[in-house]
Amino acid sequence: LQIENDLRQAAVGQEFHLNYQPIVSLDTGRIIGFEALLRWMHPERGLISPSQFIPIAEETGLVVPIGEWVLYTACSQMKQWQTQFSHPPAKLSVNLSLKQLREPDFLERIDRILTETEIAGESLNLELTESMLMDNVEELIFVLGQLRARNIRLSIDDFGTGYSSLSYLHRFPIDYLKVDRAFISGIGTGGKSRQIAATIISLAHQLGIKAIAEGVETPTHLQNLQALNCEEAQGYLFSKPLDLAAAESLILTNPQW
Ligand code: G
Ligand code: G
Ligand code: NA
Ligand code: MN
């Protein structure tokens, strides 16, 4: 497979980089962090979206070294921001794949990355998708509990699109539900999206955790989410994912930090 061989080469050839999308507190309107998003600049094919190559990386197991590179790079970036800026972002969110989490030495890898990059667990938020919560529930609860013991925060990404069982959602030690952008984009269009978003936000609150909305693109989306007491949001209304230079100029110039 060409793309598999190319993926193997990509890390070596430094073809990966991260973009950073601001995360906004809807209480204060302030940017409180960023989500790190992986980008692959293929030498011939140009920019390839993670939705195209992450599934292949998952199948081949390449997602383990790639994900390790993402975590290490994001954490070192966070450390650099904490050193460089008087008001650094409070948290950096990183997407995890199930394969990474299931590696027998996953917790040792996390500990090594936190130690080597010298960041505190509370600076890091890990995003898992709903489908990751399906099997080996007991083992997963243990691993997530160990992450929490390191003060790492946990989010369930794309909530509402997978098939997580509500019967054990409350057993996972999570901090955020991220409302999938499919439900946000439908707000104000006359369908049932607002009701679904409202239900997910309310579910988060019933569980004693926070809700984040993704894909917030319009003032109507924002007003509805504020009315629903959604705590945080991301989306093109605030900012698209930024390259490193743009993220840094935002950290530097944003008067609200
Ligand atoms: O940024 P973009 O919309 O192209 O991302 C597409 C998908 O790829 C999203 O679902 C996002 O969660 C996922 N993704 C982005 N970066 C990473 C990463 O570093 N690791 C994993 N596992 N998924 C990622
Ligand atoms: O699955 P995940 O939530 O990790 O996906 C994040 C992806 O969503 C990013 O790749 C980013 O490019 C994309 N994204 C971020 N904000 C918006 C938005 O407002 N609208 C749309 N359509 N996509 C967005
Ligand atoms: Na995500
Ligand atoms: Mn998502």
Describe the structure.
- This is EAL domain-containing protein.
- It comes from Scytonema millei VB511283.
- Keywords: Coiled coil, Phosphoprotein.
- Residues 1-255 form the EAL domain.
- By secondary structure, this protein is of the alpha/beta class.
- The protein has a single domain (2-253), classed as TIM Barrel, CATH 3.20.20.
- 45% of the residues lie in helices and 21% in strands.
- The protein has helices spanning 2-12, 50-60, 63-84, 98-101, 106-117, 137-149, 166-169, 181-185, 193-206, 219-227, 244-253, and strands at 16-25, 31-42, 46-48, 91-95, 124-129, 153-159, 176-179, 210-213, 232-233.
- Strands 1-2-4-5-6-7-8-9 form an eight-stranded mixed β-barrel, surrounded by four helices.
- α3 (63-84) runs parallel beside α5.
- The longest helix is centred in the N-terminal third of the chain and has 22 residues, at 63-84.
- The model has no long low-confidence stretch (mean pLDDT 94).
- The structure holds guanosine-5'-monophosphate (G) (2 copies), sodium ion (NA) and manganese (II) ion.
- One guanosine-5'-monophosphate is lined by residues 21, 37, 95, 157-158, 181, 214-217, 234-236, 241.
